[in-house]
Design goal:
This protein is mainly alpha-helical. The chain has one domain. It is about 60% helix and about 5% strand. The chain contains ten helices and two strands. A hairpin with a 5-residue loop joins strand 1 and strand 2. Helix 2 runs antiparallel to helix 9. The longest helix has 26 residues.
């Protein structure tokens, strides 16, 4: 167990080192918006939720008192039938983050939103897959498949929801979080994950969105993006070129060139 969590800690520490580097660059070399600044208090919510989820993945007491009763109740409601729409709605929040800036005021132009999304997906893919294949928690529907913790669908949905909240404000964020919460509940309803899995996925998703914003100043410098301009309704792609690679929790990558 110690080795597994040490590996996760090492990955988080590496990402944090890049974040600190972005924050300590000379002022005239980086454009840093307020939403992109690292603050330790931003780790409280995802850290707490991740701690609860990790405890649930290892605790026999949590499994007996929470995971199994919730699973049994969900199966009574579903009657063993599965609804697959969570495979699709998990992407709605991140797609909304990319697209809403064309019709709503936004702090970042489209290229910057692509960079934030790509970085967030990369961080999420690393954290989710590392946890899945080191913790190796059995799935409730297929115990032989030992990759339940954390839920990749939930991480994807909550990552997008946090991106939307930070870019467009509370009301749009509330809608995105409603979609993310629905995704998490459907993973339990479909008997694909335990409650501890979706808690871990939600925490990693939120943290990944934070990482995407924290590292944007470095990417802005690397890709020579014009971060001094503010977004607005109908704003286009902006200037500059960027190559973005978006690894998903399932190992699929998409390269986008602008």
């Amino acid at each position: 167990m110690k080795n597994r969590f040490f590996l996760l800690l090492l990955i988080l520490e590496s990402i944090s080192a890049l974040t600190v580097r972005a924050q300590t660059q000379p002022v005239d070399s980086l454009v840093i918006h307020e939403s992109e600044r690292f603050r330790a208090r931003q780790l409280i919510v995802p850290g707490t939720i991740l701690g609860i989820g990790a405890f649930g993945a290892y605790s026999p007491w949590y499994m007996e008192k929470v995971n199994i009763p919730v699973r049994d109740y969900a199966q009574e409601l579903s009657g063993g039938q599965r609804l697959r729409f969570d495979d699709y709605i998990q992407y709605i929040p991140s797609a909304s983050f990319l697209g809403l800036g064309f019709v709503l005021p936004s702090e970042h132009d489209f290229i910057e939103r692509v960079c934030v999304t790509a970085t967030s997906y990369a961080a999420m893919g690393i954290l989710v897959n590392t946890a899945k294949y080191t913790i190796r928690e059995p799935r409730p529907d297929r115990p032989e498949a030992r990759n339940a913790f954390p839920s990749g669908h939930t991480a994807t949905a909550f990552m997008g929801a946090e991106l939307v909240r930070r870019e467009y404000g509370g009301w749009w964020g509330a809608g995105a979080y409603a979609v993310a919460t629905t995704t998490a509940l459907m993973r339990i309803y479909n008997n694909r994950h335990w409650t501890s899995d979706v808690l871990g996925g939600a925490a990693i998703g939120i943290l990944s969105a934070d990482i995407g914003f924290w590292l944007l100043p470095l990417e802005r410098k690397l890709f020579r993006l014009d971060g001094s301009r503010r977004g607005g309704p109908g704003r286009g792609a902006g200037s500059g070129k960027a190559l973005a690679v978006l690894p998903t929790p399932y190992g699929i990558s998409v390269a986008c060139v602008f």
